[in-house]
Amino acid sequence: MAWYPMVKRDISLHSEKPMHGNFGTPESCRGFAANTPSFSPVEALLFSTFPVASVSISGFPCHMQKEIPHLDALRHEWLALQPLTAENEARLWKKLRLEWNYHSNHIEGNTLTYGETELLLLHDRTLGNHSHREYLEMKAHDVGIEHVRTLAADKDRLISEGDIRDLNRIILKEPFWKQATTADGQTTRKEIIPGEYKTTPNSVRQATGEIMSFASVEETPARMSDLVAWLRQELTSPTLPVAACIAKLHHDFIIIHPFENGNGRVARLLVNYVLMRGGWLPLIVRTEEKEDYLTALRLADAGELSALMTYLQRRLEWSMQIGIKAAKGESIEEPSDLEKEVAIFVRNQQENKDKVVFRSPEALQTLFNLGLREFVEKLCSKLSKLEPLFRSHFTEVTVKPDFLIASGNPVKDLELLIQAPEHDSSLTVIYDFQGYLGKAPNPFNLLAPASIAFSKNRYAINVAKENVVVRAFAEPVLPDEAETLANKALAHAFAEIKKLSGSTE
Which of 154-158, 344-348, 373-377, 464-468 has the lowest mean pLDDT? Predict the structure, then answer.
């Protein structure tokens, strides 16, 4: 599917007639008009004169009411590189599809990892102990993304309220019951009907204890009608630069909160509908930046939309830069993307996912390459941050069986264990911190142990005196999980230091 829209002329731009088969319509916030002279789609996008708001827009400083030169330059460079080769388009879409599905769902509480998301969407296989609904919603969101691509590419009509309800119906898949809290703080259960506007208030109690109120049940239909009318007009006769348009759209939709569930995911789908219609790539709101995202939304609640605009603009820049690299045939892998793909490939090659893999040099080497090496390296790096707090420190490394002679280098000694496949074996690393230098009721030292043990057909990772991983050899630790485990070791050691020092910070 092309990334920029094809122009179709002599089509009514304002038809309200519901259409449930041919989706789509005119241009984005800075797109070209439907009656553009006979340029090619790319030429029309490159050479059109884009209008800018001539009056001050509430919440946007004057300098933010014009297109950002850097962002506009990225878009022009991207469009000039069209069309992509089939290979480059496929690898770009694979990355954006996985990032979009994983992050948009994870922000809302879905617990599938990135690797498990890839396994599910690309290979239709499941791994991990997650609820059936989490797998269902991840696959349904993927269908929702494809539906948005269809809406964005089809120029026959503008998006309608019916399309938005369809998106909610698609991503939620089927009715379900969900725990909810009443306005007076009582716990209750609420049935979620996909695609239907809310029938009960859906206010949210914030961490501060304050109630965040959205549009009432009674006013929601009218508010949604107004929002869609504004969006259709903005798509036809733009008054805002793209970053301002999507920020306003996102916030206005969230402040209405029209559905009982799925509002955040639908808001992000709508944002990317607007972007893809205008020759942009979809932006990804990353789960690691959830607090930045929510802070920008809170500021928008207070009437300051520029923070949300800036945040979404930054995420859009990332997508455009990735797209340009892909179009030029350059690598679009980011740190640990390759490791994730290798891990998925290894899992997918198993003829039977329940097949028992016995210990062997090959099995141990696979575990080492996919995540154990990274775990040990990150463990060393993170615990070293505590060294300035103590007079001295040293690392003790022991390996079993005893005939193996440790070098004292945790990574090298882990590799050494691979050479003894016929024995139960283990690597233990103890970080010994001596003489705390800060204020404390009593002098103290600190031991921070971690170990990896291999048996005949399983392996275990122990951090902070707790087995945090016990798995078959066919289930490797992925790089993102290695980061989490190393952070757990650091968090435990730091908590002990604060406890022993009497710190309340």
Answer: 344-348
For residue 53, what pLDDT is reported? Answer: 32
Closest C-alpha to 247, from 62, 65, 55, 13: 65
What is the Cα–Cα distance from 393 to 193, expressed in whole angstroms?
59
Cβ–Cβ < 8 Å for 393, 497? no
CA distances from 393 to 213, 412, 447 (A): 54, 20, 10
CA-to-CA distance for 417 and 364, rounded, in angstroms?
8
SS3 (DSSP) at 324: helix
Assigned CATH class of 41-327? mainly alpha
CATH 1.10.3290.10 occupies which residues in the chain?
41-327
Task: Tell me the three state secondary structure of residue 180.
Answer: strand
**234 and 228 Cβ atoms separated by less than 8 Å:** no
Residue 420's alpha-carbon distances to 28, 402, 441, in angstroms, are 62, 11, 47
Whole-prediction pTM? 0.59
Lowest-pLDDT choice from 182-191, 238-247, 448-457: 182-191
Angle between helices 306-327 and 86-107 in degrees, nearest 10: 150
C-alpha distances out from residue 490 to 61, 376, 381, 466, Å: 43, 12, 10, 14
Residue 87 one-letter amino acid: E
State how far the alpha carbon of 163 is from the alpha carbons of 16, 120, 197, 363, in Å: 11, 26, 13, 49
| Rg, Å, the chain Cα set | 27
42-72 b/e (C-beta count within 10 Å ≥ 16 → b): bebbeebebeebeeeeebbeeebbebbeebe
- Asked whether 120 and 112 are in contact (CB, 8 A), the reply is yes
Question: Could you write out the three-class secondary structure of 274-295?
Answer: HHHHCCCCCCCCCHHHHHHHHH
For the segment 278-331, what is each residue's pLDDT rounded down to a tens digit?
A: 999 999 999 989 999 999 999 999 899 999 999 999 999 999 999 999 999 999
Distance CA 111, CA 108 (A): 9
**Residues whose CB is less than 8 angstroms from the CB of residue 252 and which lie 6 or more positions away in sequence, other chains included:** 227, 230
The first and second tokens of residue 207, run together, are: 């961490």
Biggest alpha carbon distance in the chain?
83
Report the number of secondary-structure helices (H) and strands (E) in the chain. Answer: 16, 9
Whats the size of the chain, residue-wise?
505
Looking at the DSSP assignment, which residues form a beta bridge with residue 502? none
Q: Where are the alpha helices (DSSP H) in 384-478?
A: 410-417
Dihedral sign, Cα of residue 162, residue 168, residue 170, residue 174: negative
